[in-house]
Protein backbone atom coordinates (compact mmCIF):
# COMPACT_ATOMS: atom_id res chain seq x y z
CA UNK A 1 0.00 0.00 0.00
CA UNK A 2 1.20 3.47 -0.82
CA UNK A 3 1.18 6.11 1.92
CA UNK A 4 -0.78 9.32 1.57
CA UNK A 5 1.06 11.51 -0.87
CA UNK A 6 1.17 15.27 -0.71
CA UNK A 7 1.58 16.66 -4.19
CA UNK A 8 2.51 20.17 -3.02
CA UNK A 9 6.11 19.14 -3.23
CA UNK A 10 5.51 18.40 -6.91
CA UNK A 11 3.79 21.70 -7.62
CA UNK A 12 0.21 20.55 -6.94
CA UNK A 13 -2.32 21.96 -4.55
CA UNK A 14 -4.30 20.40 -1.70
CA UNK A 15 -7.13 19.21 -4.01
CA UNK A 16 -4.68 16.87 -5.75
CA UNK A 17 -3.89 14.84 -2.61
CA UNK A 18 -4.44 11.11 -3.18
CA UNK A 19 -5.35 8.95 -0.21
CA UNK A 20 -4.86 5.21 0.33
CA UNK A 21 -8.54 4.48 -0.25
CA UNK A 22 -8.54 6.33 -3.56
CA UNK A 23 -5.44 4.47 -4.77
CA UNK A 24 -6.80 1.08 -3.75
CA UNK A 25 -10.16 1.71 -5.39
CA UNK A 26 -9.04 2.87 -8.81
CA UNK A 27 -12.57 3.14 -10.16
CA UNK A 28 -13.71 5.50 -7.40
CA UNK A 29 -12.44 8.68 -8.98
CA UNK A 30 -11.68 10.32 -12.27
CA UNK A 31 -9.37 13.22 -12.84
CA UNK A 32 -10.67 16.23 -14.69
CA UNK A 33 -8.27 19.12 -14.91
CA UNK A 34 -6.62 19.53 -11.52
CA UNK A 35 -9.30 17.84 -9.42
CA UNK A 36 -10.55 14.34 -8.75
CA UNK A 37 -14.29 13.69 -9.20
CA UNK A 38 -15.94 10.66 -7.63
CA UNK A 39 -17.92 8.35 -9.88
CA UNK A 40 -20.96 8.99 -7.70
CA UNK A 41 -20.78 12.67 -8.56
CA UNK A 42 -20.48 11.79 -12.26
CA UNK A 43 -23.40 9.39 -12.07
CA UNK A 44 -25.50 12.08 -10.43
CA UNK A 45 -24.79 14.46 -13.31
CA UNK A 46 -25.05 11.78 -15.96
CA UNK A 47 -28.82 11.91 -16.57
CA UNK A 48 -30.30 15.14 -17.80
CA UNK A 49 -34.06 15.44 -18.11
CA UNK A 50 -35.06 18.04 -20.64
CA UNK A 51 -37.97 20.36 -20.03
CA UNK A 52 -40.98 20.17 -22.36
CA UNK A 53 -39.95 23.52 -23.86
CA UNK A 54 -36.43 22.24 -24.58
CA UNK A 55 -37.79 19.09 -26.19
CA UNK A 56 -40.23 21.11 -28.27
CA UNK A 57 -37.44 23.40 -29.54
CA UNK A 58 -35.05 20.54 -30.25
CA UNK A 59 -37.72 18.54 -32.09
CA UNK A 60 -38.65 21.58 -34.15
CA UNK A 61 -35.03 21.83 -35.30
CA UNK A 62 -34.92 18.06 -35.84
CA UNK A 63 -37.90 18.31 -38.21
CA UNK A 64 -36.11 20.99 -40.21
CA UNK A 65 -32.66 19.41 -40.05
CA UNK A 66 -31.97 15.94 -38.68
CA UNK A 67 -28.18 16.43 -38.81
CA UNK A 68 -27.32 19.92 -37.51
CA UNK A 69 -23.74 21.16 -37.68
CA UNK A 70 -21.67 22.29 -34.69
CA UNK A 71 -22.78 25.92 -35.00
CA UNK A 72 -26.47 25.00 -35.07
CA UNK A 73 -26.06 22.76 -32.03
CA UNK A 74 -24.11 25.43 -30.17
CA UNK A 75 -26.70 28.08 -31.02
CA UNK A 76 -29.57 25.86 -29.90
CA UNK A 77 -27.71 24.91 -26.73
CA UNK A 78 -27.19 28.55 -25.81
CA UNK A 79 -30.84 29.32 -26.54
CA UNK A 80 -32.06 26.45 -24.35
CA UNK A 81 -29.39 26.60 -21.66
CA UNK A 82 -27.89 23.22 -22.64
CA UNK A 83 -24.37 22.24 -23.46
CA UNK A 84 -23.78 21.62 -27.18
CA UNK A 85 -22.65 18.10 -26.28
CA UNK A 86 -26.05 17.33 -24.72
CA UNK A 87 -27.76 18.65 -27.83
CA UNK A 88 -25.48 16.45 -29.95
CA UNK A 89 -26.34 13.39 -27.84
CA UNK A 90 -30.06 14.18 -28.06
CA UNK A 91 -29.85 14.25 -31.87
CA UNK A 92 -27.84 11.01 -31.96
CA UNK A 93 -30.37 9.30 -29.69
CA UNK A 94 -33.29 10.57 -31.78
CA UNK A 95 -31.66 9.38 -35.03
CA UNK A 96 -31.02 5.96 -33.49
CA UNK A 97 -34.58 5.81 -32.20
CA UNK A 98 -36.01 6.58 -35.65
CA UNK A 99 -33.70 4.07 -37.31
CA UNK A 100 -34.72 1.39 -34.81
CA UNK A 101 -38.41 2.21 -35.28
CA UNK A 102 -38.02 2.07 -39.07
CA UNK A 103 -36.27 -1.30 -38.89
CA UNK A 104 -38.93 -2.63 -36.51
CA UNK A 105 -41.69 -1.41 -38.83
CA UNK A 106 -39.97 -2.93 -41.87
CA UNK A 107 -39.45 -6.23 -40.04
CA UNK A 108 -43.11 -6.39 -39.02
CA UNK A 109 -44.11 -5.80 -42.66
CA UNK A 110 -41.77 -8.59 -43.75
CA UNK A 111 -43.21 -10.86 -41.05
CA UNK A 112 -46.75 -10.16 -42.27
CA UNK A 113 -45.78 -10.79 -45.89
CA UNK A 114 -43.97 -13.98 -44.88
CA UNK A 115 -47.04 -15.23 -42.99
CA UNK A 116 -49.22 -14.54 -46.03
CA UNK A 117 -46.80 -16.41 -48.31
CA UNK A 118 -46.69 -19.37 -45.90
CA UNK A 119 -50.50 -19.53 -45.85
CA UNK A 120 -50.62 -19.38 -49.66
CA UNK A 121 -47.94 -22.08 -49.86
CA UNK A 122 -49.92 -24.33 -47.50
CA UNK A 123 -53.03 -23.76 -49.62
CA UNK A 124 -51.16 -24.83 -52.76
CA UNK A 125 -49.71 -27.89 -50.99
CA UNK A 126 -53.20 -28.89 -49.86
CA UNK A 127 -54.57 -28.36 -53.37
CA UNK A 128 -51.82 -30.54 -54.82
CA UNK A 129 -52.47 -33.40 -52.41
CA UNK A 130 -56.20 -33.36 -53.21
CA UNK A 131 -55.87 -32.51 -56.90
CA UNK A 132 -57.65 -34.41 -59.59
CA UNK A 133 -58.08 -33.88 -63.27
CA UNK A 134 -61.39 -32.24 -64.19
CA UNK A 135 -61.63 -34.08 -67.45
CA UNK A 136 -60.83 -37.63 -66.37
CA UNK A 137 -61.42 -37.49 -62.61
CA UNK A 138 -58.21 -39.31 -61.71
CA UNK A 139 -56.04 -38.03 -58.87
CA UNK A 140 -53.00 -36.16 -60.05
CA UNK A 141 -50.46 -37.60 -57.66
CA UNK A 142 -47.67 -38.60 -59.95
CA UNK A 143 -46.55 -36.95 -63.11
CA UNK A 144 -48.10 -38.78 -66.01
CA UNK A 145 -47.20 -38.50 -69.63
CA UNK A 146 -49.28 -36.22 -71.80
CA UNK A 147 -50.14 -39.24 -73.98
CA UNK A 148 -51.63 -41.12 -71.03
CA UNK A 149 -53.53 -38.01 -69.95
CA UNK A 150 -54.98 -37.52 -73.44
CA UNK A 151 -56.04 -41.17 -73.48
CA UNK A 152 -57.81 -40.76 -70.11
CA UNK A 153 -59.61 -37.63 -71.29
CA UNK A 154 -60.63 -39.39 -74.50
CA UNK A 155 -61.85 -42.37 -72.45
CA UNK A 156 -64.07 -40.12 -70.29
CA UNK A 157 -65.47 -38.43 -73.42
CA UNK A 158 -66.28 -41.74 -75.02
CA UNK A 159 -67.99 -43.03 -71.82
CA UNK A 160 -70.19 -39.94 -71.71
CA UNK A 161 -71.01 -40.38 -75.38
CA UNK A 162 -71.85 -44.06 -74.86
CA UNK A 163 -74.14 -43.22 -71.91
CA UNK A 164 -76.26 -40.88 -74.00
Automatic annotation (TrEMBL):
<keyword id="KW-0238">DNA-binding</keyword>
<keyword id="KW-0371">Homeobox</keyword>
<dbReference type="InterPro" id="IPR009057">
    <property type="entry name" value="Homeodomain-like_sf"/>
</dbReference>
<feature type="compositionally biased region" description="Basic and acidic residues">
    <location>
        <begin position="14"/>
        <end position="24"/>
    </location>
</feature>
<keyword id="KW-0175">Coiled coil</keyword>
<feature type="DNA-binding region" description="Homeobox">
    <location>
        <begin position="43"/>
        <end position="102"/>
    </location>
</feature>
<feature type="domain" description="Homeobox">
    <location>
        <begin position="41"/>
        <end position="101"/>
    </location>
</feature>
<dbReference type="InterPro" id="IPR042160">
    <property type="entry name" value="HD-Zip_IV"/>
</dbReference>
<keyword id="KW-0805">Transcription regulation</keyword>
<keyword id="KW-0539">Nucleus</keyword>
<dbReference type="GO" id="GO:0003677">
    <property type="term" value="F:DNA binding"/>
</dbReference>
<protein>
    <submittedName>
        <fullName>Homeobox-leucine zipper protein MERISTEM L1</fullName>
    </submittedName>
</protein>
<dbReference type="GO" id="GO:0005634">
    <property type="term" value="C:nucleus"/>
</dbReference>
<feature type="region of interest" description="Disordered">
    <location>
        <begin position="1"/>
        <end position="25"/>
    </location>
</feature>
<dbReference type="Pfam" id="PF00046">
    <property type="entry name" value="Homeodomain"/>
</dbReference>
<comment type="similarity">
    <text>Belongs to the HD-ZIP homeobox family. Class IV subfamily.</text>
</comment>
<dbReference type="InterPro" id="IPR001356">
    <property type="entry name" value="HD"/>
</dbReference>
<keyword id="KW-0804">Transcription</keyword>
